[in-house]
Amino acid sequence: MSLLLSLFLAVVTLVAAVVLYAILSKLGIPKSINKAVSDVEGGGEVLTKGRFLGWAALLAAINVVLLTAFATLGSLLYNVCATFTGGLEVTLAERD
After folding, report:
1. pLDDT in the model for residue 32
2. How far, CA to CA in Å, does 18 sit from each of 50, 71, 91?
3. pTM check: above 0.85
4. Residue 73's pLDDT is what?
5. Which helix (DSSP H) or strand (DSSP E) does residue 48 occupy?
6. CB distance 25 to 87 below 8 Å
7. Is residue 95 part of a domain?
8. How do residues 10-58 score in pLDDT, each as one tens digit?
9. 12-35 as b/e, with b when 16 or more CB fall inside 10 Å?
């Protein structure tokens, strides 16, 4: 379950990156950043759509791995604690 939720979060991250880059490109920010860097260093383009989405995909992949691992570890620790303490009983309705 944690893997599926992590994958859904990765898709949301990639969609948000596409929307963010679209907004930034409409404002002309990538062009001004590339111009400023080329004026200082004389190099090529630094901020392109491919690099921006590539970093977003890398971040999403790292999040999938870490969130899945931490959720698995958390459930393991919860089960160990519940075994030692007897668990938690919640009564939603009175028993007859």
Report:
1. 92
2. 10, 28, 47
3. no
4. 96
5. none
6. no
7. no
8. 999 999 999 999 999 999 999 999 999 888 888 788 889 999 999 999 9
9. ebeeebeeebeebeeeeebeeebe
